[in-house]
Amino acid sequence: MCGIAGEVNLKEISPINSGYLKTLCHRGPHNSSYVKASEKLNLYHTRLKIIDLTDHSNQPMVSGDKRYTISYNGELYNYLDLKKKLQNFGFKFKTNGDTEVFLNGFIKYGKNFFDLANGIFAVSIFDKINNKLYLARDFIGVKPLYYIHDDKKLVFASEIKALLKSNDIKKNLDKSLINEFLFYKYISGTQTLFKNIFQLEPGKVYSVNLNNKKIKIEKYSYYRFKETERKQTLNETVEETEFLLNKSVALQLQSDASLGIQLSGGVDSTLITEIANKNSKIKHLYCSTFKNYEKNEFKYAKIVSKKINVPLNKVELDKSFFFKNIDKSIYHLDEPLNHPHSLAILQISLKAKKKVSVMLAGEGADELFFGYERYLKILRSKSNISMIKNGAFLRTKDDLKLFKIFEKKDFGDPHQNRLKILDKIEVRNKIKKFQIFETKTHLQSLLLRSDKMMMANSIEARVPFLDKNLFNYSINIEDKIKKSINQKKILKKILSKYDYKDSFINRKKIGYLVPFNEWITSEKKFTKELEDEVLNELFDKKSLSMLTENIKKKNNVYSSAKFYWLLLNLKKFIKTFSVDIN
Question: How far lies 491's CA from each of 115, 154, 174, in Å?
Answer without folding.
Answer: 27, 44, 41
